[in-house]
Design brief:
With 421 residues, the protein is α/β, with parallel strands linked by helices. Helix content is 40%, strand content 11%. Helix 15 links the parallel strand 11 and strand 12.
Length: 421
C-alpha cells in the first residue's frame, strides 16, 4: 500500500513534465524556440526574465535586419586646383585668364617662367598679394622661385609636377587638377564647371590619348634630345644627340594633348610613384621631343588601376593645322561659333586682348570691365567685391553644353572602347 502511494506521488509531476517537453518540442518547429519560451513563461513563470529581454539585444541579428539603411549622402561640390603658367610678356594675359577662372572654392597656382623679366614676376606677385579677394580667401599662390620652361623639352612636365606637389602639400580637399597657359581662356563659368562635374566619379581623368604615334614615332619617340632648360637660366631650343633609340618594350607609348583635367588620386600617384612607374617614365621622357604630349598619357595607360578612369578628351577646343606642326592655330572671332558648339570648357590659343575674348566675356561669362566672372558666390556692390556663399551655384547655358559633352564621353556604351588604345 505504501509502495502504491509512493507511485501516485510521482505520477502528477511526470505527466506535467511530459506535457511541457511535448509542447516545447512541437512549438520549436512552428514558432521558434524563443517564441515558445515566451508562451511557456506566460503559463508557467519558471524562466528568468532576462532570457526574454535578450530577444532584442545586440546578440540577435534579427533586431537589425529591418532597420532601414541611411540614405546616401549627396557628394559635396568638387574643388578644382589650377596651374596657370606663362612666359615673357604674358603678365597681363595670365592675369586676365586668372580672373576669368576665379572661384573662392578652388585653388590656383600661377607661374611666370624664368625667361620672364624679374619686373613682370614681381608685378604678378604684387597683384596677387594686394587683391582684396585673393587676400581674404587665400587660395591663390605664386611660384616665386621661377622654373625655366620650354614646351618641346621635359621642363614643362617638371613644372607641372612642381605645381601638383605644391597643391598636394597645401590642401587635401581638391578633386581635379587643371593645367592651363596664359593663352587659354574659359568657355564656361566656374559655376558651370562645378555644376557639370558635381555628380561625376572623382577618379575620372580627362586626358586625350592614343597609342597610334604615326609620324611622332620617328620624329619624337626615337630621337634623343637634350633640353638646355634643365641646366641653364636662358631659354634655348632643344638639340639632338646620337644615336637614335628603339621604341621601348617594357611599356607602351601614348601621345595626346598637353592640356588635361586629372584626378587627385592620379596626381598623387604621379608624385609619389609607389610602384616606381612614374619615375621610370619621367627619366625616359627627359630625352623625348615634346614630352608634355606623352608623359601623363603613358603613365595612366600603363598603370592598370587607372586605365578605366581615362576619358579620351582634354576638355579644350583647339584648332590644329594639317599636316600637324608644333603649335595650333591662333583663335579669332571667326572661331567663336565652333568654340561654343564644341561644348568644351576651355579654348586655346588666343592673342592678348583679342576681340574674341571680349565676345566670350560678354556672351558666355557675363564678365564686365575686367572683374571676376560672376557666380553664386558673388556678393557686395559692385558685384563680386565680397565673398558670399561659396557653395551656391548659378549655372547657365555653359553647364548644359559641357554636361552634354561629358555625357557623350563618360556615359556612352563606347566609353571603355576609347580607353588606352
Amino acid at each position: 500500500m505504501g509502495s502504491l502511494n509512493m507511485e501516485k506521488k510521482w505520477v502528477f509531476p511526470l505527466v506535467v513534465s511530459s506535457l511541457i517537453c511535448t509542447f516545447l518540442f512541437a512549438t520549436s518547429f512552428n514558432m521558434g524556440l524563443v517564441s515558445s519560451i515566451r508562451t511557456i513563461n506566460s503559463i508557467f513563470p519558471i524562466f528568468p526574465t532576462h532570457v526574454i529581454s535578450n530577444e532584442t539585444s545586440q546578440y540577435f541579428a534579427e533586431s537589425k535586419v529591418n532597420v532601414p539603411p541611411a540614405p546616401p549622402a549627396a557628394p559635396p561640390l568638387p574643388r578644382f586646383a589650377y596651374l596657370v603658367s606663362g612666359s615673357k610678356g604674358d603678365l597681363d594675359k595670365l592675369w586676365r585668364t586668372l580672373r576669368s577662372l576665379y572661384h573662392p572654392r578652388n585653388y590656383y597656382v600661377v607661374h611666370l617662367d624664368l625667361e620672364s623679366p624679374e619686373e613682370e614676376r614681381l608685378e604678378l606677385a604684387s597683384r596677387v598679394e594686394k587683391d582684396p579677394i585673393f587676400l581674404k580667401v587665400g587660395n591663390v599662390f605664386m611660384i616665386t622661385k621661377a622654373n625655366m620652361v620650354t614646351y618641346r623639352g621635359p621642363t614643362m612636365v617638371a613644372n607641372t609636377l612642381h605645381a601638383c606637389a605644391i597643391l598636394l602639400k597645401r590642401h587635401k580637399d581638391w578633386d581635379w587638377f587643371i593645367n592651363l597657359s596664359a593663352s587659354d581662356y574659359p568657355l564656361v563659368t566656374q559655376d558651370d564647371l562645378l555644376y557639370a562635374f558635381k555628380d561625376l566619379k572623382r577618379d575620372l581623368n580627362f586626358i586625350e590619348h592614343t597609342s597610334r604615334l604615326g609620324w611622332k614615332e620617328g620624329q619624337r619617340a626615337m630621337p634623343l634630345i637634350v633640353d638646355p632648360g634643365l641646366y641653364q637660366t636662358t631659354k634655348q631650343d632643344i638639340f639632338w644627340v646620337a644615336p637614335r633609340r628603339a621604341l621601348p618594350t617594357a611599356f607602351k607609348l601614348f601621345t595626346g594633348s598637353a592640356w588635361m583635367i586629372l584626378s587627385r588620386s592620379f596626381v598623387e600617384y604621379c608624385i609619389w610613384g609607389w610602384d616606381n612607374l612614374p619615375r621610370i617614365l619621367l627619366m625616359y621622357y627627359t630625352n623625348f621631343v615634346s614630352s608634355p604630349e606623352g608623359y601623363f598619357q603613358t603613365v595612366i595607360c600603363n598603370a592598370p588601376e587607372f586605365i578605366q578612369t581615362a576619358a579620351n578628351h582634354d576638355m579644350h577646343y583647339i584648332s590644329w593645322d594639317f599636316p600637324p606642326k608644333q603649335h595650333p592655330h591662333t583663335l579669332t572671332v571667326n572661331d567663336t561659333a565652333k568654340m561654343i558648339a564644341s561644348g568644351a570648357a576651355f579654348a586655346r590659343k588666343f592673342k592678348q586682348d583679342d576681340p574674341a575674348l571680349d565676345i566670350i566675356d560678354k556672351e558666355l561669362l557675363n564678365r564686365k570691365n575686367g572683374s571676376f566672372t560672376p557666380g553664386g558666390w558673388c556678393a557686395g556692390k559692385p558685384r563680386c567685391t565680397k565673398v558670399g556663399n561659396i557653395t551656391k551655384l548659378k549655372p547657365g547655358p555653359g553647364a548644359k553644353r559641357l554636361r552634354r559633352l561629358i555625357n557623350r564621353l563618360v556615359f556612352s556604351p563606347e566609353f571603355s572602347e576609347h580607353q588606352c588604345i
